[in-house]
Design goal:
The chain has 524 residues and is of the alpha+beta class. Helix content is 40%, strand content 19%. The N and C termini lie far apart (63 Å).
Length: 524
């Protein structure tokens, strides 16, 4: 690192947007450049993304950052990468893509997942990875490819993830990180590949596809001359391969600051709920769901449960109002309706309705897996009005968060929040009372990019270790604790009991509705 190098670039390649973010070495955010991502959804359940376009978009985001930060290239001490998790990005001869990437949204592996989940060695696979089987995962997708389109694998030399593909284009090195390697093909205790897991997936003969594992907080690779020409940066700049985006976001938002019993929830379009524990304290539930994902801290992992839809449920409720108002006059903007939420919450009674937030057409994956699960509103009578429905939807997010944390053990002693919904005081009150714990909001704007940039900061020696970096980059950005409302806690305690009873009882109804949808598909 030269004397003039005073910033780190964090790249967060999400599902919808690729962002390049400049931070100074103390963690202050300086500028952001973003490019929209593009992917294609097919009627067969496919969700694919052009690998060459993704790299072009990443390079464009970096060039755009150069237009916002004076002297970006010589000032860059390191580049760091994170990105959307799961999925399968196959690379063949000459580091060329074999086909478009299968994203985490791709559902084609569902038949293979059902077969693997019923196999006798599934529990052993789960106990090694700490991660439930799902169609989004690379292991399931490669197993499905082997069964249905083996020609793709025959042309492939390495299976990468999104950030790994970008790392390859930046450095010429094929690698993955300990987090994705261990929750997909390995053991979270050793952070290495595991023969038991690979065998359970039926992929012994495909082991050659797995790349080397590299920890970006300890190691980096130089930017190639070709990548430098495409990005406007300097050849030789250290490039750090970060962990998967879920844990990078949590690291940047405060999942681990040295305080016992803390947890972090990202409440955005989806809900991601995680707690940091030592590997020997992991709680493996009997249902075999969730994730265990390593943190770039020795022996520390996150237990994770993710629900498919969080604020998407609020968007649905607001769209009902927007559509109805548009029948009579100009429809309000989404922002106008969002601004009304806290007022509607104040004009409604807590716990008067029960809402299950399974609005996603893909069903639910946390803390249970059921592709046919659907949202429901229980307890309506003639006195209920739209504010009551809005409250029920928001309370449903609190119940879902509690459901996810219950599947990981005890409730957290403090919850750190990030994501768009964290800006709502009403949402924060519901989450605090649902979990009966204080909440703190991180003011970090680009937590995912910050998380991987923190890894690079440690790798280049700007900090002695990750804990020292966290103390300067993360802890000071946490707001004051907001304690739970004692009048709401007992109401939500009872509501959660009812929520779970209704959730378990609705499964046959979901089956029946799925059968009707299938019949409609046949008849159309």
């Amino acid at each position: 690192m030269s004397d003039s190098s005073d910033l780190i670039i964090g790249i967060d390649a999400g599902t919808s947007v690729i962002k390049a973010v400049a931070f100074d070495l103390s963690g202050n955010q300086l500028a952001v450049s973003s490019v929209r991502n593009r992917y294609v959804v097919g009627g067969d359940g496919s969700a694919t993304q052009s690998m060459t376009q993704t790299w072009a978009d990443c390079a464009a985001a970096l060039r755009g950052l150069g237009g916002k930060v004076a002297g970006l290239a010589p000032r860059t001490a390191a580049i760091a990468l994170t990105g959307q998790g799961d999925g399968t990005w196959l690379v063949g001869k000459g580091d060329e893509p074999v086909t478009d990437a299968w994203l985490w949204l791709d559902a084609r592996a569902a038949p293979t997942v059902r077969q693997l989940a019923a196999a006798k060695n599934e529990r052993a696979r789960f106990e090694a990875t700490g991660t439930g089987l799902n169609t989004c995962q690379q292991g399931s997708q490669i197993a499905h490819m082997a069964a249905t389109c083996p020609e793709l694998l025959e042309r492939a030399e390495t299976a990468l993830h999104c950030k790994d593909w970008l790392f390859l284009n930046l450095t010429g090195v094929r690698a993955t990180d300990p987090s994705e390697a261990s929750f997909t093909f390995g053991d979270f205790r050793t952070r290495r590949y595991c023969d038991t897991v690979i065998s359970a997936l039926g992929l012994d003969s495909r082991r050659y596809l797995l790349p080397e594992i590299m920890d970006g907080s300890q190691d980096s690779r130089p930017l190639t001359a070709q990548a430098a020409a495409e990005t406007g940066l300097l050849a030789g700049t250290p490039v750090s391969l970060g962990y998967v985006d879920m844990v990078m976001t949590a690291l940047g938002a405060g999942v681990h600051t040295g305080d016992a019993g803390t947890a972090c929830s990202t409440v955005g379009s989806t809900g991601v709920h995680m707690r940091a524990v030592t590997a020997n304290k992991v709680y493996l539930n009997t249902e075999g769901t969730g994730y265990v994902i390593c943190l770039p801290v020795p022996d520390l992992v996150t237990q994770v449960q993710t629900n498919m839809a969080a604020t998407l449920n609020i968007d649905w409720a607001l769209a009902l109002a927007e559509d109805l108002i548009a029948e009579f006059r100009d429809a309000p903007s989404h922002a106008d309706l969002v601004a009304k939420i806290d007022g509607w919450m104040a004009r409604s009674s807590p716990g008067s309705l029960l809402y299950h937030p399974y609005i996603s057409e893909a069903g639910e994956r946390g803390p249970f897996v059921n592709a046919d699960a659907r949202a429901s509103l229980v307890g309506l009578n003639t006195s209920h009005r739209f504010p009551d429905i809005v409250r029920a939807v928001v309370e449903g997010l609190g119940m879902a968060a509690r459901d996810c944390y219950a599947a990981m053990g005890d409730m957290p002693l403090e919850l750190r929040l990030t994501g768009g919904a964290a800006r709502s005081a009403a949402v924060r009150r519901v989450l605090a009372a649902s979990l009966d714990t204080s909440v703190r909001v991180s003011s970090r704007e680009e937590a995912g990019a910050a998380g991987c940039a923190m890894m690079a900061a440690v790798a280049i020696g700007a900090y002695d270790d990750m804990d020292a970096c966290i103390a300067e980059w993360t802890t000071p950005l946490l707001g004051e604790p907001e304690p739970p409302d004692p009048s709401l806690v007992p109401i939500y305690e009872q509501l959660f009991t009812t929520y779970r009873q209704a959730r378990d009882g609705l499964a046959p109804a979901w089956d029946g509705l799925a059968a009707m949808r299938a019949l409609e598909g046949v008849n159309t």
